[in-house]
Amino acid sequence: MAPGTSRRTKPKDRRAVAPRARGLRSARAAADIVEAFATGPLAAALIQRGRIARANEAFARALGARLPALRGRPLAEVLPPSEGEVPELAPGASLSYRTAVDGVVARVDLSAARRPRPDGTVLVHAVLTPLLARPDDAGERALLDLSRDLAEARTEDEITRALARGLELLFPGRSFAIRLVDPKSLSLRTFYARGRLRAVARSRLALRQAAVEKTGLSRAQLEEGGVAVADTDEPLFEESDAALVVPLAVGGSLFGVLNLEYPRGGPGDRDADAPLLYQLANHAALGVRNVRSFEELSTLKNYLENLVEHANALIFVVNRCREVIVWNAALVKLTGFAREDVVGDDLFSYVPEDERKPLEGVLLRAFAGEAAAGYETRLLRAGGREARIAVNTASILDSAGEVDGVVAIGQDLTLVRSLQAAAEHAERLAGIGRLVAGVVHELNNPLTAVNMYSDVLLEKVQGGRYDPSDVEKLRAIKESGLRIQRLARDLVSYARPAGARTEPVELAPVLEEAARLANPALKDRNVSLERVFEDVPPVEASRPALVQVFVNLVTNAAQASPPGGRVTLRLGRVDGEVRVVVEDDGPGLDAEVARRAFEPFFTTRPGVGIGLGLPIVQGIVERHGGKVALEPRPAGGTQVTVSLPLQRSP
User: Do the bridges between strand 503-505 and strand 324-327 make them parallel or antiparallel, or are there none, so unpaired?
Assistant: First the structure.
């Protein structure tokens, strides 16, 4: 529909609308309605897409309805036009139409905002007034323009300028002052005056008791904030004979004060101006409150943006399309990728390929409302390097309560994991040092066999004598050589640093390798090793790291067992995890030692170890998503259980 035009509807359409409108209010005397319009503030509403988005109490009282019942109702249903339909307005346009409120003829003045909202809709300001005997004049048009300017204002200066223009047009020849205050402290924030002020005018705020009661303010709170409450209005200007002081109040809070004053011999009447000034003040108070709310939201938004940007944590946010929408300074510093290069890109562009599938699962669960804590992953860094991070995720909800994005807050683990790897490698090398004596013994037996049988065969070859037993001697030489080779290979593998990469690992061969490496400790104590293995699926793990875990546990069990004792190594599956149990039949541990066993540098054998074996075991197992438990048995001995998940979860 073109601006400024209206279409006529059939009478039956209007009759279909009118009963619903009457249902909002009860029958009242026409005099009461006119009195409500004359003494109350401006009856105004904000219309969006033809429906009431917001309305003030005066608007609801004029219709005899409650505010919740009005919100969302079509304006054409609540205030049906006497003829035609509610006109549609182009940005910046103003129109009026006639209606009736319980039989009282009224006018609805519509003024559209000059600028559409980001979603393309145009907010329309509606003012409801009874049709009095006089026709529209310039003052009423000025009031409509003022309503629109106040609705569009974004700063207090814009509100002050709009109020000043409106006061000049609506109350010509009067002096006026506009004072805006902070509603909490009641301190003065903005002062604008037209006229010659008295000496104390700027510093003193005063309101009449009747105005305080009319606007629902608390006298005690006003006086506590330094606002005087008197029986009469106090003039601010030197030449004034009388003054009309009206508070700008919303919801029991004071946002400012309007002074309208009458110079000696000047135009205007205080009692006649009061209804219109109260209407203007009510609407201005709403404008000031909205601007303050907008400023507070902007300040809070900027504060939160700065907080995220400069936080001493890694923070990124992705939307449902997996696009990065926040990439803070800590991530820029860690990865070397600038924010403007990352924002808008797919997050997976900055994640190694082997980390994408598990990370996708974490994001999908987060979009379903499930948070993840301590999830570890890797990010690519400029120059081809990688960084390991741990993050906690949380869902971001939109205004409808739906998950709109995921925020991840975490920390850089690159240095921590590097130090842990160095400590584990040092402990592994220390373990090799402790095994040297046993390794020498292990090597001595096969080397003795090799030397002895080689000498015998050499003599026979030189003498030209052979017999069938020589084949067995050759077989013994080969087996001894293979034994030396296998032990050397295990030692080299054990000494090599364990990487961060994981793969499917069969645990039975891992336990056998650990048993071979721990065999010197078992022989030194004359302890036997019993294996009880069940068939179990592979686990996702670092093989060298698991070998280190079980070498450490079997060696500890051997050292805790009495001479001639036994260590039992069990492998089995329980529900969704694989369990390895290492048992010894030693004297066991008391409660205090068991409680402190996983503390770094705690040891019961000073001079033998430095107390990092079990803490490193615990760290390796937990990095694999598992757990380790130490249980002293009442009848003696100790049981250590390592549980590893079949499916890694964040």
Answer: unpaired
Tokens found for residue 633: 């048995």
DSSP string for residues in 178-247: EEEE-TTT--EEEEEEESPBPTTTTT--EEEHHHHHHTT--HHHHHHTT-EEESSPPP-BTTEEEEEEEE
What pLDDT does residue 472 have? Answer: 64
Two tokens, residue 70: 């009005």
Q: Is the pTM of this model over 0.70?
A: no
Query: What is the rounded distance in angstroms from the CA atom of residue 390 to the CA atom of residue 378?
Result: 9
- Note the pLDDT of residue 131: 67
The single-letter DSSP state of residue 464 is: T
The CA distance from 439 to 445, in Å, is 10
Domains of the chain and CATH, by start: 1-134 (3.30.450.20), 137-310 (3.30.450.40), 313-410 (3.30.450.20), 417-645 (3.30.565.10)
Other CB atoms within 10 Å distance of the CB of residue 472: 10
Do residues 446 and 481 touch, judged by C-beta distance below 8 A?
A: yes
Q: What is d(CA 311, CA 307) in angstroms, rounded to the nearest whole number?
A: 6
Determine the pLDDT at residue 430: 55
- Give the DSSP per-residue string, 393-427: EEEEE-TTS-EEEEEEEEEE-HHHHHHHHHHHHHH
Contact 578, 507 (CB under 8 A): yes
Q: Which residue ranges in the chain fall short of pLDDT 70?
A: 1-41, 131-141, 414-501, 598-613, 634-635, 647-650
Reported residue count of the chain is 650
The per-residue pLDDT for 571 is: 94
pLDDT of residue 610: 42
- The Cα–Cα gap between 205 and 259 comes to 10
Long-range contacts of 85-88 (CB under 8 A, 24+ apart): 85/6, 85/7, 85/8, 85/9, 86/50, 87/1, 87/3, 87/4, 87/5, 87/6, 88/1, 88/3, 88/50
Q: How far apart are CA 270 and CA 632, in angstroms?
A: 93
